[in-house]
Amino acid sequence: MANSWATLGVDLHLEPAGSGGLRRGLTDALRDAVRTGRLVPGTRLPSSRTLAADLGIARNTVAEAYADLVAEGWLTARQGSGTRVAAGVPATPHGRRGSAVGPAGTAPRRRAPGLPAHSLVPGAPDLAAFPRTEWLKAARRALATAPFEALGYGDPRGRPELRTALAVYLARARGVRTDPGTIMITAGFSHALRILGTVLRARGVRTVAVESYGLDVHRQLLRNAGLATPALPYGELGTDTGALGDARAVLLTPAHQFPMGTPLHPDRRTAVVEWARRTGGLILEDDYDGEFRYDRLPVGALQGLDPERVVYLGTASKSLAPGLRLGWMVLPPSLVEEAAAAKGQIDTCGVLDQLTLAEFLTSGAYDRHVRSSRLRYRRRRDALAAAVADRAPDVRVTGIAAGLHAVLRLPPGTEQSVIQAATWQGLALHGLAFHRHPQAVTEPLDALVVGYGTPPDSAWAGALEALCRVLP
Amino acid sequence: MANSWATLGVDLHLEPAGSGGLRRGLTDALRDAVRTGRLVPGTRLPSSRTLAADLGIARNTVAEAYADLVAEGWLTARQGSGTRVAAGVPATPHGRRGSAVGPAGTAPRRRAPGLPAHSLVPGAPDLAAFPRTEWLKAARRALATAPFEALGYGDPRGRPELRTALAVYLARARGVRTDPGTIMITAGFSHALRILGTVLRARGVRTVAVESYGLDVHRQLLRNAGLATPALPYGELGTDTGALGDARAVLLTPAHQFPMGTPLHPDRRTAVVEWARRTGGLILEDDYDGEFRYDRLPVGALQGLDPERVVYLGTASKSLAPGLRLGWMVLPPSLVEEAAAAKGQIDTCGVLDQLTLAEFLTSGAYDRHVRSSRLRYRRRRDALAAAVADRAPDVRVTGIAAGLHAVLRLPPGTEQSVIQAATWQGLALHGLAFHRHPQAVTEPLDALVVGYGTPPDSAWAGALEALCRVLP
What we know:
The structure is a homodimer of 472-residue chains. The first copy, chain A, contains 14 helices and 17 strands. The first copy, chain A, is an alpha/beta fold. In chain A, helix 2 crosses helix 4 (59-72) and helix 3 packs across helix 4.
């Protein structure tokens, strides 16, 4: 759920004034990033298509900005290797190259002033709220008590301290049935999905059904493993798990469909487990934000219904921070060995963060952080719902009161223009179309997927105001 | 370079008395590990072949110990899923299951007393010397200054702070020519080699030549990517890089051949770079312990001769600890994009350890730690050489004064019996045969690969004494 420009480590401050202004704003922001060394030589820029989608602006605008900078010598564009920061460009702040003038003697420019600084793109929690002090305390305690052998090469499943802490936590918080022996620590959800893709393909599986709405990067990981990813229909009761066809596995977000925001209907939960038992199928349960439900206790994990047929996938990316690169799988015992082989037979996650997270869980710091986050996000969701009801009566907030994002249903035919308007307001925003499976048979809906968890507290009010200004 | 029993997190204390004693000792140690929860239900044990090789005992002894424990109900053995800790066994220390008696009502036994506690298996630094306090200080400073965006999803190459710090450090310490844009952070050397295997295979490479002596796990990673790994001859001048045949890439340890302990002869350094230029070949330079040379300045990285034709690979596993799971590649610019794709287009290493290592490098703490480690390991190497000269005149310490291991040349035909004797002394030790390429054309040598870096300070004298007792 990374944004293409966020992964560049660059704040793009686009001027909200005229399409020439957009192009100039983007050009200035990128030039500035190269000049100051935030983009180092050799860095590959996102494709114009990707960056345009993420910024919600026309692809041409990005392409023209890139062309300007290639002409000026800041970037290079070569067939097959994309657009990159040119090798000869000057001074990083680390001073390895000297001058602060441009490659063609251009005088340095000041960064163009402007917006957005506002992002409501879903997929990340409020990173400014990461509990740094508590985390460091836990790290100190964990490191003080860890046996020195813990710092060696480790079990491919990860540290036993963390697997034990997770077994207890997941049973209590999510109704997961497990023991530490069947848990595998991964570098986040994507890493887990890569491992599972390899395992499934090696077992002869060719098709993993996915939902009509979801993340293309996840589908891509499965396709990279040689798996087809047909879409299941989506309707009132959630994803239609009756349409699995010849798929031998299915990737679902049962507790809180991403991005639609609804839970899988109880009948469908039962039905999909039935299907798995009957056909020997496997359910991959993506429980990305199971901690965050605001109106009632969250529905338990599907995995509790049949630990032999469900792989439960959790992550610290929403509850703490994506940068930790910590996720976990609860595997059917029969899959543990194959998953370890696919992971490479050694632990690939840093021991210190694993030990720290174990300490964080067992000391209660994790629960405290989740509780305070829940309160923060609930307030934001309530504020979002109230503001929308007050200022945009034609827009409806849908989905259950849960998670870090809400779906705002728009009047038909307005999604594209709202995204465009948001860009002009300097607000990064995703439309539902961005999350739609290209072969989805479901009727397209106009909606926004608003990641209200994303801004820091200090920017939340401004982001909400910017959103309200662009709603129809 | 993990030991199979170390990855189980279990100290195997084997009785050095009679082969019945060995079997009983192993049986007791494993039973105790299961009973006390150090081995949790579902854990897969190493194959009897692997464990026997690591312990230097007969495979039958391990197989019989396993059979005993299956008969007692502590383990299960099933075709295709190996030997595992049985599901019904009692109490982990975390108390999720209750009783402390065995599955068949066996009364708990005391752990069999005995040795080894001594390991001179190469591949790890002294884990007890990991600079915990300094690391935590660096973590605090790093976390205090990190922008909150650093905790989000990141660049597949890793954090720019660390890449910048490494660019400066590697240029200074190892003569590597790079800038932060061509560095990629990985979860250790193995992860880097996996990525490179994928990249090379995708480019149509089918053969990566390797050295006659090296680690089978590395060859296996390349084979997993579909690459053949023929062996280059090894002789007086080091690996013979004139015999590359139709290989289009070669994996080398130029500064300090692992395990033989010699540097690649200057003529051969030049020759292999010449070969790469002439044929478009690629050199993978494994600089696993380049920091540790005791008699003079280490020879600079081969990469400095031609950054377009050499991938430089470094790791924190020897200089700090394998558990950090941090390594780095310096890539020819033309490979950066393909490596990012093979890595999965997102950063997979925890941000906090990356930021901490960057701070560790820039603050000078890394240099201080390397200096004090160098002193410690040098003293151990000197003590080893003196003890061998004094007590085993038929044994010769070979290789340059560098790294964390030494090669002890033995009288012909004695390697196997020395390893066997070491096991009886409770000393884990690798013979050179363990590191020999199965198709090596080089004449076999009898030698030990002594990892003098492995024991904690408190165990070093005992380990050395145990070694001296078994030398011919």
